[in-house]
Amino acid sequence: MPGGTPLVEAIVREEWKQFQDVNNEGGRAACQGNWPVFHQMRLSQFLTWPEDLKSSYLADLRGAAAEGRNLLTEKYARMMASTDPTYYRERLEPFLPAIGEARTAQQERIIARQVAWAADFAARYPRLGAGMRRLRTSDDTRDATSFETYLRGELGTYSQHTLDLYDAMIDDCERLGRNLTELTIYNTVLLGGFASLDEAEHAQPAA
To answer: Distance of alpha carbon 204 from its chain centroid, rounded?
Structure first.
């Protein structure tokens, strides 16, 4: 079973701390009180990252906190560009760091690769895939945020240095034939007590 190194645990703890201060329009969300699930899901992601990327992102989180910024608040705010565009445009966008054209293009290249990986994984593991977020921004509603929109919000909080390291990781995965969604969910199912993706897939209820 994968375990969190001190660096990974520090990232998850810092995210959790900032997550507690995210203000939701409808009040505090239930997931803000569910540390075990938060820990499992975030640990699964960060365990796939190389050390330099993890160190850079932790520096982003701590640097933002020192400046009075909350990267988790910014992440969820950016998602609302799709899920509630009027509110985003009028109430949130003016207070978020601007993202230029070159940065946007870089993020969208990354997103396109990851959406393709997620679609491939869901096709091969349909029962596990059924438990994933909706895939594309076109499927967003005010109450349901897609994988694509979530990723766009998350990438938008990274420093340029962190994003460049993340971009390099995506390049490495593509070069080596690795699917980042599969690697992440593999960690998730191991942390959930399964021995393999196949075992976890067969344990899910049929659609």
So the answer is: 23
The pTM (predicted TM-score) of the whole model is 0.94
**79 and 145 Cβ atoms separated by less than 8 Å:** yes
Reported as a pLDDT band with limits 50, 70 and 90, residue 118 is very high
CA-nearest of 124, 120, 114 to 180 is: 114
| Residue showing tokens 């997931």 | 31
Reported as a single tens digit per residue, the pLDDT across 124-141 is 999 999 999 999 999 999
For residues 99 and 111, the answer to whether their CB atoms sit within 8 Å is no
Maximum separation of any 2 CA atoms in the chain, in Å: 48
Does residue 1 fall inside a structural domain? Answer: no
Contacts 24+ apart (CB under 8 A), 197-200: 197/125, 197/128, 200/128
Domain annotation covers residue 21: yes
Which residues span the domain enclosing 85?
Answer: 6-203
The total of structural domains in the chain comes to 1
Residue pointed to by tokens 């997103």 = 111
Give, as one character, the DSSP assignment of residue 3.
-
- Cα–Cα distance between 94 and 96 in angstroms, integer? 6
